[in-house]
């Protein structure tokens, strides 16, 4: 099946990559802290979502765009600034929305999306590898804003993710509207160990299916 894809420059915000047709809705998708939308994980995730009827609107934060221009790494700015940037992208793609517009992202991008949803509301959230805490710092939880989430929220997480394993997350008191989909043996990029008998592509396909099904249920009112 050929995949619909279009890239263009959105006003003063920067490049926007649109992939897939919105049979089950649209997902405004942010990247993680250290890699942009050209990361293999992000490319494979967008392709898998397109195959399942989810149109992704993929953007990069300004610091990542500067990294490309300068050819050197730089840390992301404070999360509050990223939330404002994400809000600007959300507002900027409104004219492309043909129905529910879910927010989401990988790791840091998902955290920023959740902070924006807690602040302004959202049609839904798809969080891929949510950073519940920094690695090896399980006491530093990033959940203070979660009681304010009032939209359908899906977390797709590897069971071995150092930012929040299945055993750790089981101890958290999460809001009733949060659904967890665990990818067996996956780590932060959803890579399983060879001994599991599966590979990253299979886990990305499973994660994309979970996202598409959650968005389809929400669109039909069946949740």
UniProtKB/TrEMBL annotation:
<feature type="domain" description="KANL3/Tex30 alpha/beta hydrolase-like">
    <location>
        <begin position="26"/>
        <end position="215"/>
    </location>
</feature>
<dbReference type="Pfam" id="PF20408">
    <property type="entry name" value="Abhydrolase_11"/>
</dbReference>
<protein>
    <recommendedName>
        <fullName>KANL3/Tex30 alpha/beta hydrolase-like domain-containing protein</fullName>
    </recommendedName>
</protein>
<dbReference type="InterPro" id="IPR026555">
    <property type="entry name" value="NSL3/Tex30"/>
</dbReference>
<dbReference type="InterPro" id="IPR046879">
    <property type="entry name" value="KANL3/Tex30_Abhydrolase"/>
</dbReference>
<dbReference type="InterPro" id="IPR029058">
    <property type="entry name" value="AB_hydrolase_fold"/>
</dbReference>
